[in-house]
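It is worth pausing here to work through a concrete case rather than discussing structure prediction in the abstract. The textbook approach is simple: state the sequence, then state the predicted structure, then interpret. We follow exactly that order.
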Amino acid sequence: MRWLVGWSSIAASFGTVGAVGNSGEGRTVHPVGSQLLWGDPDPLWAVGDWRPDEIRVIGVATPESAPTARLAVLGCCGATDEQLRVGLLSARGGAMRHLTAWPGSYTAVVQIGRRITVASDLAGARPVFHTPWAGGTAFATAALPLADLIEAQLDIGHLAALLACPESPEALGDGTPYVGVKRVPPGHALILREGSREITGYEAVASLAVAAPQADPVHAVEGVRDALVEAVRARLTAPRHAPEAAPPDPGPVPGMGPADRRAARGGPVAGIGADLSGGSASATLALLASGLPGLPGTLLGHGAGAGERLLAVTFNDLTTRGDEEELERAHAIAADPRLHHVVVAAGEEALPYASLDTGPLTDEPAPSLVLAERHRRRLSAGSADHLVGHGARQVLDAHPARLADLLMDRRRRHLLRPVAALTKAEGPTAHSLFVPLTLYRAARRLARTSYRTGLESAAGLLPDANRRAPDLATPADASLAALAWSRPGPAARWLTGEALAEVSVRLQEAAIRPTSVQRPGEARARAALARGAADHRILEQATEIRSQRLHAPFLDNQVVRAARALPESLRVQPGARAAILRRVLGGAGIHDLPPGWGAPSQATSTAVTRTGLRMALPDLMALFDAPLLADAGLVEARVVRKALRAASEGAPLPLDGLADLASTELWLRRLLNRRGTCWTGTAAPRRRAVAGGVAPARRTLQP
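Step two, the predicted structure:
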């Protein structure tokens, strides 16, 4: 895991050499395995196996009387050194948005005198955390090191909110699973001045009184194309890194090729590669990276490098036949001579919930923990720099609540096609005849419901979520449930009444709290994007392979901004994501796509998850024999075991909710079995985070 950490304090010397601790004595404290980027009075460290080109520190010459001005950029950033210097000069005047507009995925830290500015990204894949410490404020891009620093306890209320309302920022707030460690919201920056902190947004907020002018669809798609091309170009033009020395090849093995033997030994292939699942997102990135025109030093201006072929990795699940069409499309796309296609075949050992007893401790819990082994097998056959299509669904697709935004702007005719598509998906039943009218009424009700009223209604319904769980068997049912300011998550039906009541109180407090309210569809879409980006961040940590970097260009700031400029009338059309990406590829000169490209594959994913749940049922039953979640008063072990058994037998239960429960329980066990700390030095904390363990069972809520 790679992260950066620093702090700002009132003291003029703290944290590097001869620092002053809480007791006023000369002490030092610094993170284990770190490199110091700059020292006192406000030090900054980079921790982990950062590559040399991933850490860039720029300073500008200033008179002796002027404050120090320097900029640190960590991650993949496509800006040149001159652009960084210009950005730093602009930041001296207080501007910060331009620091987040360069291609790539990175974290920017600016120091102007004693003022430090740390910007989080728009999606949430590059978050920033902070906590009060030693009379000042410590910040980091990971929450666990800060929890170690202050020896934090577990925040059971936050875990309850994460399970009950995972896509409701109002319930989660700015908290983390650790008491005292806070998160900077996406699209905001943390500003520190001699220990004091301020959180401010750097994105313009649209007015609710006047509808924003609708962008031209053609120009909007061109903006997405340009942003996506620049995001891929930033990865291609970065220096190549050969993986560290892996164990020697033992020689030929029956049934295994060189790529299979290397993947078994561990370690990625040198160069750049991409996922190629046959779907629209991964195929778009693979085709752009393999044939992006205009790259300097490439053969005829094409390809990932001079004479270099892009490594395209396709995962083939042998336990199901539902992905045969995607595999055929992947083979058709990989026929391009600029692609080197590798198919990773796996059986029961790579199903969801496989190998739950192995894996590293991640910063936070996330549903991707139960899929870590599945993704790790695919990524182990990838390259040192590997492109993935994560985030495309949340960035480009339209959330069902955007139907209410269309009604707020009096664009009723744009509801015809999405409503007709949902009616068709219902099939020829008597219920499908009422789908158009039901959806229209629900969208109109949401458009006329204020933010405060919507949250108060959700808070009133939440305590009964474990008794009145909605049936989301059809796409229309799921869309109807999504037409609300806030709704319970799939795991809420298995939480205890006490846990749901506590989350309900959080929603009620958020309803009366002043906030910059957005349109319901836009707000729900941003919350879903933050949820997906956080899951990708944890997946990156759970499947981390040394010397490999995962790149998700769809989560880059400039791609998210360009996608937000897409008109809602274009987003809500059926198949909008595939149509947009097809036009993106067409603008890049790629037109020959296989039939069926962009078809959804959710049914296959559900079948694979249910198969993995059935195969891992004994391990899951043992996991929930005496769960820590039950000790914390969040669930009843008997209820969860009954649900796991029923879902493995084919009962129509939300599999996402069971994944949330299993991943949270798994994360808690790994956290409490952990030893040691992230810090060293004479003033370093001696205990690990959450030293007190899980709170006692059956907590009583305060009135």
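Step three, interpretation. Residues 520-542 form the longest helix (23 residues). The CA atoms of residues 111 and 285 lie 35 Å apart.
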